[in-house]
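Morning F.,

Quick status update on the modeling queue. The single chain you submitted on Monday has been processed. Sequence for confirmation:
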Amino acid sequence: MNAGPAIDAHFASVRADIPAFCARYFGLGGSALLHSRSFASDIFLSPINLFLVGPRLALHLTGLVLARIGLRRAGKLLVALDISVPTTLRRRIRDVLAAELLQLDSLEQSIPEEERLRWRARIGRLVGDYLEARDAVAEFAAGLAALTFGFLVLDRLTPGAISLGPILASGYAHDEAVNSFWLGPWAGEAWYGLVGVDTPIAWIVLGIALMIVVLSLIATIIGVVVDPIQTWTGIHKRRLHRLVDGVERATRDAADVRLSLKDPY
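Structure tokens below.
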């Protein structure tokens, strides 16, 4: 429907800019800048998404099982279901994709006015598919890092601030009680091993708040590292080429294209 030299030139320019775009935003410096600018606003959202790594994996596996036993439609819905919370980082990447790489404002001028609303919806779904796959890699890696942190520091395999915070607080309360026991730490260890220690609510709240900050830092650090790795291995370039192919098809043929990108789930 929308064929012509202008469309050809537009997508040729977009594809030629993919390596530079990856270097600018997904190289080490660009990735660090993106994550640092969104850290403050995402500090409470990143731990939520880390906590949802397990449920997302469970939904994905359930969907695969349903598809395997013949319930393909239900299985496909579960596999595609995204329960993560949109972050500022995701919105920033969406914006630079639209404005700098895909140049959607310029491309929209070639779309008949009566078709533009449907075209925007098609492109929005494609960009959403791309962002979901990209986020899944970062969240999965950050989830594994958080699990490792919990296991090494607190001897617990749990990525959630709500579960790690009370463990941290109770451990601190126990150490304080043992060290201040009137007969000395050795006797205190024996005594509180029998009767236990009550953890103040304020310490639990403080522990949860501290773990939120720690897990957000972990997610940010992992995100800064994961993007350059995907750039160096060519994953980002291949995914962006597939996104551009989908946008071109949605523009030329008015097709309702969806991206099927692999993610760690």
